[in-house]
Amino acid sequence: MGILLVYDVTDETSFNNIRNWMRNIEQHASETVNKILVGNKCDMDDKRVIPTARGQALADEFGIPFFETSAKANLKVEEAFFSVAREIKQRLTAGKEGEGGAGVGAPAIKLGKEQKSKASKSKCCST
């Protein structure tokens, strides 16, 4: 339901891969999937090669939110995850109100007791 596109602010190649990842998402994911762009390792200013403005410009180009984080220093990591979670919730809530049903991207069926136990034992299940 949500995708975080993460690049390393100290690695030009990882930033350049974002466009390829976006193409893959457009080809293979639901068109309603929520996406955000995350520049990680923002605590490493001495090794930074991707300026914040460049990350923001790419996010603006794709029309998605942008965060710079540091997993090591625990900077803005929660904010990034909460942001995408809020967007997903808003999308699903709007889908329920607009359609009177389960909402866009919501599961179409509910599993009974017997089906739940079978699904939980397998590594993959289909709907």
The major beta sheet can be summarized as: 3 strands, parallel
CATH architecture: 3-Layer(aba) Sandwich
Q: What average pLDDT do the residues reach? A: 83
By helix and strand content, what is the structural category?
A: alpha/beta
Uncertain segments:
100-127
Describe the strand arrangement of the main beta sheet, using strand numbers: 1-2-3
Helix content: 40-55%
Shape descriptor reads globular
Count of strand segments = 3
Strand-residue fraction? 5-15%
- CATH topology descriptor: Rossmann fold
CATH superfamily: P-loop containing nucleotide triphosphate hydrolases
Number of helices: 4
Cα-atom Rg, whole angstroms?
18 Å
Q: Write the H/E string, N to C.
A: EHEHEHH
Number of domains: 1
Describe the structure.
The chain has helices spanning 12-28, 52-62, 77-99, 113-121; strands at residues 2-8, 34-40, 66-68. It is globular, with a radius of gyration of 18 Å. The relative contact order is 0.15. The protein has 127 residues and is an alpha/beta fold. It has a three-stranded parallel β-sheet with strand order 1-2-3, with helices on both faces.
Keywords:
globular; 127 residues; single chain; Rossmann fold; alpha/beta; 3-stranded parallel β-sheet
